[in-house]
Design a protein that fits this description.
The protein contains 17 helices and no strands. The protein is mainly α.
Length: 367
């Protein structure tokens, strides 16, 4: 038995021991490799005793021999199929490569094959869903994630993914149902609180039309002026359920503080007129490890400073956002608008001319 197990272990480890003992022959048969009995590939079938040559010098292979080796992990037990981990990983790599070279349909087909092989792996359903979403195929994306939920009913991330699709299609009651289910499955999943909370602050009515064109800019004192007239940047959001949204953001932050949650909470607070609370939330996000130059947080903080009548601070935050992300279009537009309102027409134009938009960047100036 000791020699049998030693030979089997060497074979499994990729050694050079020839498959002549019962256990090593069993391994060869299970893997469909050539054996000294026939020299042929035997695709997963057990070799009958009569196939053993009389002068082989070994005892005939029996089920007992294979079972003994399998008990110690040397070979799989009869009837047990090992998961094809290596082939699945190679298929994932193939799908990613096909996506990169633009062969999207082939990539999707590959992901579908993986899903059939490993339906219990939530990752493959997420990848398949995202592949459809990148092609604008929301209906197929939802079918993919629904099939994933059928195969993995306790996967909270798949439930949230379906909720996000419903939210995108403005099917808000359905989205709330899936968000709630995801939270029931995993109440520590911070992304659920963020996504659900953002849905709750959706506009109740269409945004106001832009104001008519103004005359030439003139200086104004922010401390003495009323809140700026409605524009694409400074208008107060028309909120849905701000109190429920804030509660969701705060629950998520209690579980796992993230820059995205702090950003969502700060923007909501600022839109509700809670300037001090908004700036505190956004600064807390910037204080997280590695987030001190987060352009989204810096931009939102600049907007809050404008609302609080502190244009110099807003300018500093927006410039810092552009230092961190020179192609951040919204920061270019915000800074240009600020300079225009302060009467700095040349600075406004130079800022907007640096904006990475198509056509004439000056045309992007907010009304």
């Amino acid at each position: 038995m000791a020699s049998l197990l030693a030979a089997t272990a060497a074979y499994v480890a990729g050694g050079r021991a020839p498959p002549t003992t019962p256990a090593s022959v069993a391994m060869a048969v299970v893997k469909g490799l050539p054996t000294p009995m026939t020299g042929l590939d035997i695709p997963g079938a057990w070799v009958p005793k009569k196939a053993m040559p009389k002068d082989s010098g070994t005892s005939p292979l029996t089920i007992a021999d294979v079972s003994a080796a399998a008990a110690l992990g040397a070979v799989p037990s009869p009837g047990v199929v090992e998961p094809p981990t290596a082939s699945v990983e190679s298929l994932f790599e193939r799908a990613a490569h096909l996506e990169q070279i633009g062969q999207h349909e082939e990539a999707i087909s590959t992901l579908k094959s993986i899903a059939k092989m490993t339906p219990g792996d939530g990752k493959v359903w997420m990848k398949l869903m995202n592949a459809h979403k990148r092609r604008g195929q929301l209906e197929l994306a939802e079918r993919a994630v629904a099939a994933g939920i059928d195969a993995n009913p306790s996967n909270a991330r798949l439930q949230q993914a379906r909720a996000d699709i419903c939210r995108t299609q403005k099917r808000f009651p359905e989205a709330a149902k899936h968000f709630r289910r995801a939270m029931e499955l995993d109440e520590s999943l911070a992304s659920v609180y963020d996504s659900w909370g953002r849905m709750e602050v959706r506009p109740r009515a269409p945004p106001e039309p832009p104001a008519p064109p103004r005359a030439a800019p003139r200086p104004r004192r922010f401390r003495d002026a009323k809140r700026p007239s409605p524009s694409r940047l400074f208008s107060q959001a028309q909120l849905g359920n701000p109190s429920e949204a804030a509660a969701l953001f705060q629950k998520g932050l209690a579980l796992q503080p993230t820059a995205r949650l702090y950003h969502a909470l700060g923007v909501l607070q600022d839109s509700c007129g809670q300037a001090d609370a908004a700036r505190a939330s956004l600064r807390a996000g910037l204080a997280l490890p590695g987030e001190d130059a987060n352009p989204q947080l810096l931009h939102a903080l600049g907007v809050a400073e404008v609302r609080a009548g502190k244009p110099a601070r807003a300018r500093a935050h927006w410039r810092a956002a552009l230092d961190a992300s020179p192609t951040f279009t919204l920061a270019h537009v915000s800074l240009g608008q600020l300079e225009e309102r302060l009467g700095n027409a040349q600075v406004c134009d130079s800022t907007l001319n640096a904006c990475p938009t198509r056509g004439n960047p000056v045309d992007a100036r907010p009304n």
